[in-house]
Structure formats: C-alpha cells, structure tokens
Write a structure and sequence with these properties.
The structure is a single chain. By secondary structure, this protein is an alpha+beta fold. Strands 5, 6, 7, 8, 9, 10, 11, 12, 13 and 16 form a 10-stranded mixed beta sheet that branches. The protein has a 4-stranded antiparallel beta sheet with strand order 2-3-1-4, with helices on one face. Strands 14-15-17-18 form a 4-stranded antiparallel beta sheet. The radius of gyration is 23 Å and the shape is globular. The model has no long low-confidence stretch (mean pLDDT 95).
C-alpha cells in the first residue's frame, strides 16, 4: 500500500513526531480486524457469541466499549449464515460501535433522535439497541440506493420505534427543535478506510478533503435548527485529518453555539486523544476520541459529543392527532405486542405505528418527507387476503403465536434465502407460515401443500452461494 504524499505531509504536521512512524506502519502493514455486534432483542445478553456465529476454530474477544460487540480472529462467510439475514447480529467495524458508549454516557431518559447520514445502518442499529425504552429514531440517508440498503438493515434489526427516510438534511428544517439527539456521521474523505479499502486511496486528494469539510459544515448548519437547546450532537467521521475533525468542532462551538462534552474512556481501550494546535484553539485532548491504527484495534474514526447552547425559541409541536384504526383492520393489532394504530399508506402498505412513534410519524408525513419504512409493516391487502410483510416476520414486536411456524435446517434456509422453492412436510398448516432458523424468524411462505409461494423480498435474495 502506497499512501498519498500529501496525506502523509498533512498528518505529519499535526501528529506528535514520536507517533508518526508507528501510525504509518500500522496503516500500511497491519490487517483490519473483523467484528460483529449481537442483537440483544433476538439473542439476549449473556448469549455466548460462539453459539451464534458460525466460525469453527475462530477466537472471539470482546470489544471493550460495548457489551454486545465481539472481535473474530478470522472472517467467516457471513452471507451463508441465515442468522445474519434474520438480524441476529450486525457485522460492524469495532470503532463504529463506540456510538453505544457515547449514548449510554449522555442519554438516560427516552429521546427523539435522528441518525442523519445513516446508511448502511450500523450506527442506527447500535443506537436502537442502547437508547432508553420509549425512545424513537429517524434513520435517514439522502442517497436513494443506499437508503434502500438502510431500510433493509433496519427492518432486519426488528425494532418498531423507527422511521427510515431518504432526505437531504435541509428537508428537515421545518421540524424545529424536535430532536433531543442528532447523530451526524458525516460524509468524509475516508482516510480511516485506507487499510480496509485501497480504492479509497485512489479517490483521495487534498481538494476532496476541503470539499468534504465544506459539505460537513453545510450539513451541520442545515440540521442545527432541528436540535433542541440542550440537545446532544454526536459528530463523527472516518477520517484522520484535522480539517474534517478538530477544526469542525471549533466551527460547531464558535459559529453554531455548542459546548464540547468530554467522553469518558478507560486507559486499556487505547483510544487516542484529540489533536491540538492553532488550527482549533478551543480543542483540548479530552475534546474528542480518535481511533487510530497504532493505538486501537479498529479502523479510523473520530467522534465527539457536544451540547447545544441556548434556550427554546420556536419549536415545532408534535401533537398526536386522533388516529382511528379502520374497523376491518382492528384485528391486526393482535399480531403485535406494542400499543399502536393502523395506518394505510397511499400505496396500500398497512403499517402499525407504535403510539410513541405516531406524533413524529405524522410530522414526517405532514412535511412530505420521503418515507421508506416506519413502525411495523404488517402487509398489503390483495382482495380478501392480507399478505404479511417480510418486515413483520423480522419485527421484535410480532407475537410468536400469530402464525404457524416451521424451523428450517441450514440447507433449506439457504434455499429459501435464494428465493428458490421449498416444500414443507405434509402436516404443515396451509396458508401463511413463518419460517425460522434456530428458532429465529427468517420470513414467510404461503404453504399450498404440494409447493410454497415465497414471500422473501426478491431484491434481498442471496444471488451467489
């Protein structure tokens, strides 16, 4: 791996001289780690990771800043594990899991949060796992292709208290002072991915750094009115340079009005402090956490927490409008174990929106924001038949006795995930059957006896085995 000369010169100008050689050596001569985060809603805390991940002979060790994260000594073929497709765990870079520690540190009551640049969904699913019960989340991604991947991963995770949107930050501008927490993992020059993706080296240049810095400031300006005074901003990048990191903290404090919140860490986590200098005179070593390859077992990441200054001025009230579930759909609420109301979208999609999520959901609809997923997608009506949605199968709110179930072996589960036809035993009930793998819901089929009709989404199917 050959690093760009301009990158080396830039980092050399700010990194302590005693660290420079070890930083470059670690970046160019060591391999990325592999790590996963278990979904505690599907595999409760205390479940041995070895019993979940199919990695014979691999060694597991904990990611120290999150209770659900684990390093794996070798990378298994995750695609061939049905539990991955069932949302039992998420393959996530260990550094990015630090969001769980930040949220646990600063959030102890239910909040309304937004993950602004959320695809492919790692930080959103991590946030959903640790936010206090009763919290709600908007998981947003402006890029339409990536937003669909985000919606897929959110649905697999199964939490009902989330909406997935596909909008520019400026589109939220009318939702003034609505969010208690803004997670801004902003687009960046990607220097932290050099070791993992050599293609990012070819794409890097100094002009891109400054373009990204300008875009990051615009994103922050656009979303700032939506954050409540006293609200929490979690700012992060996957890059090393100070222009997109420490200088942006200075900008947020000076021009937007915020105070930096030092994030407590343990010495044995080996997290690098913020870099200090005239480029950001208000930034101190404790102002941010840097994940750098010569310090930490993980890829490059910069993360900081800030509190918005000021007092409330013109917040958007989120009022719960009367919402009556159509009488003919009332029985669908017995499928789920959370208080909710039924909403029928213009395209015929039937959703159960939890009571806690409903005011925000209504506000998103009123503002004509692009909504890909919300609450619990129940299905679509086709004549007298209601076809259950795949997202319902994966939802942690689905009552286990709603549908007859059948547990698949590995080969049959992979056949189903390819969307090939499977035949169930003759004594399996006719109609819609919830398929499971190792007792974990995987998806639906309609059992016709001599064959089944798969309800697995075509666009999610495994294409290569």
């Amino acid at each position: 791996m050959t690093l760009p000369e301009a990158f080396l010169n830039d980092i050399k100008s700010v990194l302590p001289a005693a660290e420079h050689d070890s930083f470059v050596d670690s970046l160019t001569n060591t391999d990325p780690s592999v790590s996963i985060r278990l979904n505690a809603a599907k595999f409760p805390s205390g479940t041995p990771v070895e019993s979940v991940i199919p990695a014979p002979g691999a060694q597991f060790s904990p990611v120290p800043w999150t209770s659900s994260g684990h390093y794996i000594s070798q990378r298994p073929q995750f695609t061939l594990d049905p539990l991955l497709h069932a949302g039992a765990y998420y393959v996530q870079e260990a550094s990015s899991m630090f969001i769980t520690h930040v949220l646990r540190t600063f959030v102890d009551t239910p909040v309304t949060a937004i993950d602004l640049c959320a695809a492919p969904g790692g930080k959103s699913t991590a946030a959903l796992s640790v936010l206090p019960e009763g919290s709600i989340l908007v998981s947003n991604e402006i890029d339409r292709k990536r937003s669909r991947i985000l919606a897929e991963n959110i649905q697999k995770w199964g939490n009902p208290n989330v909406c997935v949107t596909g909008n520019a930050p400026a589109h939220f501008s009318k939702l003034r002072e609505v969010f208690d927490v803004v997670i801004a993992d902003v687009p960046c020059s990607g220097e932290g991915m050099f070791r993992k993706d050599e293609g990012s080296i070819a794409e890097w240049n100094p002009a891109k750094v400054h373009e990204c810095a300008a875009l990051q400031r615009q994103i922050l300006r656009d979303i700032w009115p939506c954050l409540k005074p006293g609200g929490l901003l979690i700012y992060s990048t996957c890059t090393f340079n100070v222009h997109e990191d420490e200088e942006q903290l200075q900008f947020i404090c000076d021009e937007l009005g915020a105070s930096i919140l030092p994030i407590p860490t343990q010495p044995d986590w080996h997290i690098h402090p913020a870099l200090c200098g005239d480029f950001a005179p208000g930034v101190r070593p404790e102002s941010a956490c840097r994940f750098m390859p010569h310090f930490t077992k993980g890829e490059g990441l910069f993360m900081a927490a800030l509190r918005k200054n000021g007092s409330s001025s013109s917040s958007t009230p989120l009022r719960q409008k009367p919402s009556r579930t159509p009488k003919e759909l009332q029985h669908l609420l017995s499928w789920i174990d959370v208080p909710a109301s039924i909403q029928v979208a213009a395209d015929g999609t039937i959703r159960a929106i939890p009571d806690t999520l409903l005011p925000l959901y209504q506000a998103l609809i009123d503002q004509r924001l692009f909504l890909l997923h919300a609450g619990i997608e129940l299905g679509t009506q086709k004549g007298k038949d209601l076809i259950p949605a795949h997202a319902l199968a994966l939802s942690t709110a689905l009552r286990p006795d709603t549908f007859p179930t059948f547990d698949l072996d590995l080969d049959t589960a992979l056949t189903y995930l390819r969307r090939d036809n499977i035949i169930l035993p003759a004594d399996t009930p006719r109609g819609y059957v919830l398929l499971t793998y190792r007792s974990t819901p995987l998806g639906f089929v309609k059992n016709l006896g001599n064959r089944t009709n798969s309800l697995y989404p075509t666009e999610w199917r495994i294409r290569n085995l």
